[in-house]
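Section 5: illustrative case.
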């Protein structure tokens, strides 16, 4: 399922309707607000890159060029979730999912993850990879239920420059696909 720029609906456990859409240049301020409102605990789990205007403009540009596939999940004007496949033009794009604190536990992670996996599969990618903080048990369970395999621990550069030890997970979409060596860092 590919998402057009106008979006598709998702319904949270609490009955709220949200809309998934591809990122646009008009979304930069809303994405900055999303990051600013994350709790420190959530930001420790999800800080994929800096949120300054220049970085976000490059993120949007990479999506427009087809290098990445980037989505926002909105509850009205509020960004409830930010999720992506970086290096979408590679055989194994790198997946990331972040939800605002108020939307965690609302059953949104699974459909967001499915959308990304389906995009990669429809584009003929061999696999999807991700990293997750070693202590993020909720995300680990979600990824394992989706079929991701734990392939070890790697160093990942967070959006604030910190180097984190994270769990590397791999989902083969084609028989025989295996993890290739790669650097784990923001694309911009």
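Designed sequence:
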């Amino acid at each position: 399922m590919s998402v057009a720029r106008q979006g598709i609906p998702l319904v949270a456990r609490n009955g709220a309707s949200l809309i998934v859409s591809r990122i646009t240049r008009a979304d930069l301020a809303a994405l900055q607000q999303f990051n600013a409102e994350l709790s420190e605990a959530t930001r420790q789990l999800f800080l994929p890159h800096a949120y300054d205007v220049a970085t976000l403009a490059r993120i949007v540009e990479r999506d427009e060029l087809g290098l990445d596939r980037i989505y926002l999940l909105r509850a009205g004007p509020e960004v409830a979730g930010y999720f992506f496949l970086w290096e979408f033009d590679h055989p194994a794009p790198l997946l990331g999912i972040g939800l605002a604190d108020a939307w965690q536990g609302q059953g949104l992670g699974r459909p967001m993850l499915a959308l990304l996996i389906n995009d990669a599969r429809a584009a003929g990618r061999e696999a999807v990879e991700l990293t997750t903080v070693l202590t993020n048990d909720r995300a680990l369970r979600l990824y394992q239920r989706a079929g991701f395999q734990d392939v070890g621990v790697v160093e990942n550069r967070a959006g604030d420059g910190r180097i984190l030890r994270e769990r590397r997970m791999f989902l083969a979409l084609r028989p025989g696909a295996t993890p290739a060596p790669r650097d784990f860092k923001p694309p911009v």
